[in-house]
Design a protein that fits this description.
Blueprint lengths: L11 E3 H8 L3 H9 L16 E3 H14 L5 H10 L4 H43 L3 H10 L1 H11 L15
Helix pairs in contact: 4-5, 5-6, 5-7
């Protein structure tokens, strides 16, 4: 009995191609290798240039995605280290992602506060432009909570927006 075997061939990609495929700049690929976010990359024996395997490119794509969430370098390193861990690593991955979700939620609150502040100031200056001082003061009075919250954020007060109740627009 004869069995046909198909060898799985690995494609090799120079750094420029790996950069294009992953969306990460070449300098970032080198940096991530130097700080251990990605493991050592194979080198072409004749030139010494980096050559990325298909598996390396898959890892780079995962890194690019997790990077877009704003995850810190240390958290990205942890995430990639546990990526192939299966069920044993699942709780660790969930915890990392939950932490990032909380961080993003905080950033969304801050972004919403900034948007509301711009809205208040726009309405204020529209009233000033119409020479309607009474309406301008009313806008400031209605927007007092937003203005107070943005001032706290600008001062970098401890706790950020956690203790600030955003006014409804």
């Amino acid at each position: 009995m004869t069995f046909a075997t198909t060898a799985v061939r690995t494609s090799w990609h120079p750094i420029r191609e790996a950069s294009l495929l992953s969306g990460l700049p070449e300098s970032t690929l080198r940096y991530y290798e130097s700080i251990g976010i990605i493991g050592p990359i194979s080198r072409d024996p004749s030139s010494g240039h980096r050559r990325y395997s298909d598996a390396d490119v898959d890892t780079l794509l995962a890194i690019a995605c997790i990077n877009t969430t704003g995850m810190s370098l240390n958290q990205m390193r942890e995430y990639i280290e546990h990526r192939q861990g299966g069920p044993q690593a699942a709780s660790h991955q969930v915890e990392l992602l939950a932490q990032q979700a909380c961080k993003l939620e905080q950033e969304m609150k801050e972004l919403e506060l900034r948007r509301q502040y711009v809205e208040v100031k726009t309405q204020y200056w529209q009233a000033i432009g119409r020479n309607d001082v009474e309406m301008a003061q009313e806008v400031l009075d209605r927007g007092e909570g937003v203005i107070s919250a943005i001032r706290s954020l600008a001062r970098g007060q401890e706790g950020g927006l956690r203790h600030i109740q955003l006014p409804q627009a």
